[in-house]
């Protein structure tokens, strides 16, 4: 943030505001970690603040301090609408386009509040008074730490805030291994541990929560994996029938896409997941190195994200989607094999 933005924020927060903090739909560790981290900070500073999530957070994040106070827009609709209407300040975290909040979209467009965006995705929309956008950041949680630091308040980081921010940095960096992880990230993480983040406990709570059926679903996904060595690419398909067989629960397929990249030489990994209810195929893309899955997802699959991690969707059938995908690869042979 530049000094002008910092003074704007300081001014806004120097008086009592009615604050709403919003993560993107289908919130992940970074979305929930950053919104709750900021929520604790603002509340501890005497502000009236509420986190409103477009839909429910996954179970493996429910232990997070403050999680029980999150309003779920789908389940607590009238309360959530009222809070948005009455808000004077709205923070949008870990997304940069109002279309990323599902049903909440129109309410946010009508809101009279001043918007502040904190986010690390590409191509931010222009809806906020202060847009703190930085695509080089590992996570929005790292940016919330910086935000608090810009306000000269790192001494106010409590163990609750530290636990929330640690969680989002850990999940968005694949446990500190993605290329977005910098020495600065590690310094912040070290600082968060000093301030009370329980790193081992957080790791257990987030990653060691498998059910037998999820591991069986993973087995099915790995069995379905198709490896296209000539393109350094691996992809997985999961049909609705397979999800049903293994009693799919929301969040169960989280991280499956990354297995492709653990193959020696594979640089591009994709998972196609059939969603009969929405009538679409949901797609996650991951890459190693220069190949931009953000551009790939934008160009062919109505999606986007980061250079090495992006999402998309398709209206074709599962098989047609996979065929369409495979037929695109020759166009990118050079980028994928250089
Ligand atoms: Mn993020």
Write the layout of secondary structure elements.
Layout: H1 3-12, E1 18-22, H2 29-44, E2 48-53, E3 71-72, H3 77-86, E4 89-93, H4 105-110, E5 114-119, E6 130-133, H5 140-150, H6 159-172, H7 183-194, H8 199-207, H9 212-224, E7 226-228, E8 233-238, H10 240-245, E9 268-275, E10 280-287, H11 293-300, E11 304-305, E12 309-314, H12 318-328, H13 333-337
Parallel strand pairs: 1-2, 1-4, 2-3, 4-5, 5-6, 8-9
Antiparallel strand pairs: 7-8, 9-10, 10-12, 11-12
Helix pairs in contact: 2-5, 2-6, 5-6, 6-7, 6-8
The structure holds manganese (II) ion.
- Total domains: 2
Compounds present?
Answer: manganese (II) ion
Order of helices and strands: HEHEEHEHEEHHHHHEEHEEHEEHH
Q: Give the helix/strand class.
A: alpha/beta
Helix content: 25-40%
Distance between the termini: 36 Å
Q: Classify the beta-strand content into a percent band.
A: 15-25%
Query: According to CATH, what is the topology of the largest domain?
Result: inorganic pyrophosphatase (n-terminal core)
Q: What strand order characterises the main sheet?
A: 3-2-1-4-5-6
InterPro entries: DDH_dom, DHH_sf, DHHA1_dom, Oligoribo/pAp-PDE_c-di-AMP_PDE
GO molecular function: nucleic acid binding
Domain DDH: 18-169
Domain DHHA1: 249-319
């Amino acid at each position: 943030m530049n000094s002008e933005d910092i003074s704007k924020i300081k001014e806004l927060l120097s008086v009592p505001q009615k604050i709403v903090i919003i993560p993107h739909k289908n919130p992940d560790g970074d979305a929930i970690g950053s919104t709750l981290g900021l929520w604790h900070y603002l509340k501890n500073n005497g502000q009236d603040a509420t986190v409103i999530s477009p839909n429910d957070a996954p179970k493996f994040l429910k232990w997070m301090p403050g999680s029980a106070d999150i309003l779920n827009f789908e389940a607590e609709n009238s309360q959530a609408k009222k809070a948005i209407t009455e808000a004077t300040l709205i923070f949008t975290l870990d997304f940069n386009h109002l279309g990323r909040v599902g049903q909440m979209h129109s309410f946010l467009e009508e809101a009279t509040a001043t918007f502040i965006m904190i986010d690390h995705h590409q191509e931010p929309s222009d809806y906020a008074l202060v847009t703190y956008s930085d695509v080089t950041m590992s996570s929005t949680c790292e940016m919330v730490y910086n935000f608090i630091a810009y306000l000269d308040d790192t001494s106010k980081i409590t163990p609750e805030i530290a636990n929330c921010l640690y969680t989002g940095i850990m999940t968005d960096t694949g446990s500190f291994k993605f290329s977005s992880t910098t020495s600065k990230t590690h310094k912040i993480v070290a600082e968060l541990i000093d301030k009370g983040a329980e790193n081992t406990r957080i790791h257990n709570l987030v990653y060691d929560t498998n059910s037998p059926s999820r591991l069986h679903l993973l087995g099915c996904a790995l069995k379905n994996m198709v490896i296209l060595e000539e393109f350094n690419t691996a992809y997985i398909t999961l049909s609705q029938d397979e999800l049903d067989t293994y009693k799919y629960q929301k969040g169960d397929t989280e991280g499956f896409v990354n297995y492709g990249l653990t193959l020696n030489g594979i640089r591009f990994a994709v998972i196609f997941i059939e969603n009969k209810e929405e009538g679409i195929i949901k797609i996650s893309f991951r890459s190693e190195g220069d190949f931009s899955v953000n551009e790939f997802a934008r160009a062919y699959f109505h999606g986007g994200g980061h250079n090495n991690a992006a999402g998309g969707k398709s209206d074709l059938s599962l098989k047609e989607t996979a065929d369409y995908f495979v037929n695109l690869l020759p166009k990118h042979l050079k980028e994928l094999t250089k």
